[in-house]
Design brief:
The structure is a single chain. This protein is mainly alpha-helical and 114 residues long. It has a single domain, classed as Orthogonal Bundle (c-terminal domain of poly(a) binding protein), CATH 1.10.1900. The chain is built from five helices and no strands. The longest helix has 40 residues. The chain is rod-shaped.
Length: 114
């Protein structure tokens, strides 16, 4: 019985990797084994990057809220504590957006919490 190799699937697999590696520099774009390793590493970085992005945005929101609240003579932790005590459920993303784009509304919110 002749040896059976699924050339169609093998070629498709290689083409998929090389197509994804298009635009890379040097052998990374046209040598399958190199492209495969680089793609794998790149996908790992993108997975980790999606997690880091969330952390970085939360840090940015906190910095913006802190800056806006300090102008009103209060610290960030005090402000968040008083919001929780008054049962005001606004997340940091919304609070940071208010502080940046609606400063008057944010001032009223800080005044209502004081």
């Amino acid at each position: 019985m002749p040896r059976s190799v699924n050339a169609v699937a093998s070629r498709a697999r290689r083409k998929r990797i090389l197509k994804a590696a298009k635009g890379f520099y040097g052998k990374r774009k046209n040598v399958y084994t190199v492209a495969k390793n680089v793609m794998e590493k790149g996908l790992t970085y993108s997975y980790v990057g999606r997690k880091n992005k969330k952390r970085e945005y939360r840090t940015l929101w906190i910095a913006r809220i802190n800056a806006a609240v300090r102008e009103e003579g209060m610290s960030y932790s005090e402000f968040i504590h008083k919001l929780a005590a008054k049962n005001i459920d606004l997340n940091r993303k919304v609070l940071a957006d208010l502080a940046m784009n609606e400063p008057e509304t944010f001032r009223n919110l800080v005044a209502s919490v004081k």
